[in-house]
Design a protein that fits this description.
Layout lengths: L8 H59 L11 H15 L6 E2 L17 E2 L1 H10 L5 H11 L22 H11 L1 E2 L14 E5 L5 E10 L6 E5 L6 E3 L6 E7 L11
Parallel strand pairs: 1-2
Antiparallel strand pairs: 3-8, 4-5, 4-8, 5-6, 6-7
Helix pairs in contact: 2-3
Length: about 260
Amino acid sequence: MGTSETLPKESKDKSHKEIIRQTTEKRLNYLVIILIVIFSIIFVFVTKKDSSIDDYINSSLIALQFQEEPYTYPWSDSTEDQFLQKVVETAKGRTDNFVKYDDSYISIDYPGGDVPDDTGVCTDVIIRAYRGAGVDLQKEIHEDMSANFSDYPNLWNLTQPDSNIDHRRVQNLEVLFTKYGKVLPITKNPEDYQPGDIVTWNFTSSLVHIGIVVDEKSADGERFLIVHNGGGGTVMQDVLFSWEIRGHYRYLGRESGTNPI
C-alpha cells in the first residue's frame, strides 16, 4: 500500500498565487490587444471621415463655383424666339404638376379641349405647351384633317377626323409639323437641337414618343434637356439621344408658313 505526500500549506498558497498572477497577466495582455485594435479602428475611421469631409467640402465648393454662373440661353427679341420661349416656359412649368400617365380615350371639348389636368400622355405635354403660347394644336389638326384627311396616316381605321383624339397622336403631329413647320436635320450633334425644337423618337419597336427641347442644359453642359412624359409624369431630363430619333421640327403654328410634304 502506497503512501501519499501532503504539500505544506505555505507551498499551496504560493502555487495558488502564481496561478492568479499568470491568469491576471493573460487577461491584461488580452485587454491591451483589444484596446490597441479599438484605437486602431477609431484612428482609421476618423482619418477617413476627415478625408471624406474635406472631399465633400471641396466638391461642394466646386459645385458652387459652377452654380455662380448658370447657363442662360440667349433668347432674342425676334417674334420666333419670343413665341418659342413661351412654349418652352410653359413646358418647363408643367414639370411642377403631378401627372399620371393615362392614354385612355376621353371625350373632350372642342376647341380648347383637354383631358384632366392631372393625367396625360407624351403628346399632351406638347399640346399644353403650345396652348401657353396661344396655339391650339387640337384645332389646327382637326381643321387640317377635315380638309386633307388623306394626308394623315391611316393607323387607327378611322374614316373621318375625331377631335377627341387626333391631336394626341404623335404620327398626326408629325404630319402637321411637316406641312406647316420646319423639318430640321436628324443628327447626332447636340448643337443641332435648340430650345423650342420638337423631337420624336422610336420609343420601342411599336411605340413612338415626343418631347420638346428646353433652354436648360445637361450636367456636363453638352445637351439641352427635354421635357416629356415617358410614363412617369411630365419631367425634364437629359434624354435627347436616349432613343432613335425619327423626327425633328420647329413649329410656330399653322399660320406661320407651309412646307409641302
